[in-house]
């Protein structure tokens, strides 16, 4: 199961390129983004290490099972619903943002709501599958997409169009104090481990996380690339003019490989699969948390037949996402997302520290029972 843990790390790290993380960092490029990225790498790595201790303490248990060991259900339910809301909003924001991207770069004549509806239907079917099915599908998609995305990033770094003087100019502002928004945005890159609060149900009792050095190394490399490469292509001031900065950056690349010339089309198709996978996982985890709040017997991790409650809960998520797209425009979505990223960072830090404290209490209780 080690590889599934790191698949989540890779998925979330790569996905930040097509969200507002690079945009928010570039907006604060003179005001502490570099120091914020450094602090986020340290904090994110520490949180990941603390989280692996939680998984080791409670093998085979998800967040609901851990909470029920310490608290009555009426206290555990609000916490689980809050976590479900965070995963739900993350998936919905990604779907809405990417539907606008597809509408803008592929087919401007089609309404983004129609594109969002089709994407939501795909995620509806995927999110209702069993947890084991979801994690296996994630493996297939990442094995297919990740090499191509890393190749595109490598070509961008090696491109002769990259202006290293612009990168060095921004790098001179490394000593500015970190700010909340760029710190929270940077921290998002390291948060793939959060998915295992539920996927831990699939782990065996002897499960151990190895190669934990991969988390800070890979996350930092992706974070540095997503921040500095657009600045090198569009300049220190011009890079702040684009909302979907990596879409424009990928359109600056040209490849001479058969019929592939404009990189943006390949790049967007690859990220379409990653976005659908991320939204599927987010809705699936939110669905599992909501089901854990209901008075029903515990279901197997990989049931032979999809429960009807899965369809009902995820259909509600679809309706909420489409309603959100109808209610808010693109500018409002950017503002909401910037505040949501800060809220998510606070919730993540508090949740990991809280569950780490519970794991210490659980370890002490088990040692006293053994003696």
From TrEMBL:
GO BP annotations, alphabetical order: spore germination
Gene Ontology, cellular component aspect: membrane
TM helices/strands, residue ranges: 5-26, 32-54, 74-98, 110-127, 134-154, 183-199, 211-233, 263-287, 308-327, 339-361
Alphabetic keyword roster: Membrane, Transmembrane, Transmembrane helix
Pfam families hit by this protein: Spore_permease
InterPro entries assigned: Spore_GerAB
Protein origin, superkingdom: Bacteria
Protein name: GerAB/ArcD/ProY family transporter
Species annotation: Paenibacillus sacheonensis
């Amino acid at each position: 199961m080690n590889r599934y843990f790191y698949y989540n790390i890779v998925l979330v790290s790569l996905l930040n390129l097509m969200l507002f993380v690079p945009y928010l960092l570039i907006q604060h490029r003179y005001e502490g983004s570099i120091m914020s990225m450094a602090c986020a790498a340290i904090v994110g790595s520490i949180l990941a290490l603390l989280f692996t201790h939680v998984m080791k303490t409670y093998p085979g248990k998800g967040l609901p099972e851990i909470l029920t060991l310490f608290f009555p259900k009426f206290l555990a339910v609000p916490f689980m619903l809050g976590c479900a809301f965070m995963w739900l909003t993350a998936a919905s924001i990604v779907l809405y943002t990417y539907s606008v991207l597809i509408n803008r770069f592929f087919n401007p004549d089609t309404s983004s709501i129609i594109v969002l509806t089709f994407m939501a239907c795909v995620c509806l079917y995927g999110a209702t599958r069993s947890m084991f099915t979801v994690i296996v599908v994630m493996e297939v998609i990442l094995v297919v997409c990740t090499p191509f995305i890393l190749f595109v990033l490598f070509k961008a770094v090696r491109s002769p169009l990259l202006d290293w003087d612009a990168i060095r100019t921004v790098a001179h502002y490394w000593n500015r104090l970190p700010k909340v928004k760029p710190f929270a945005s940077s921290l998002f890159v390291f948060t793939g481990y959060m998915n295992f609060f539920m996927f831990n149900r699939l782990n065996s009792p002897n499960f151990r996380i190895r190669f934990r050095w991969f988390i800070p190394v890979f996350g930092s490399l992706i974070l540095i690339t997503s921040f500095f490469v657009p600045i090198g292509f569009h300049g220190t001031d011009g890079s702040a003019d684009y909302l979907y900065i990596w879409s424009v950056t990928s359109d600056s690349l040209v490849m001479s490989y058969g019929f592939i010339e404009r990189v943006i089309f390949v790049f967007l198709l690859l990220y379409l699969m990653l976005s659908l996978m991320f939204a599927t996982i987010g809705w699936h985890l939110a669905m599992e948390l909501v089901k854990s709040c209901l008075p029903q017997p515990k279901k197997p991790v990989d049931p032979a037949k999809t429960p009807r409650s899965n369809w009902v809960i995820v259909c509600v998520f679809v309706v909420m996402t489409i309603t959100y797209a109808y209610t808010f425009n693109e500018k409002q979505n950017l503002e909401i997302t910037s505040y949501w990223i800060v809220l998510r960072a606070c919730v993540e830090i508090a949740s990991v520290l809280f569950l780490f404290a519970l794991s210490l209490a659980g370890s002490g209780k088990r040692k006293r029972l053994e003696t």
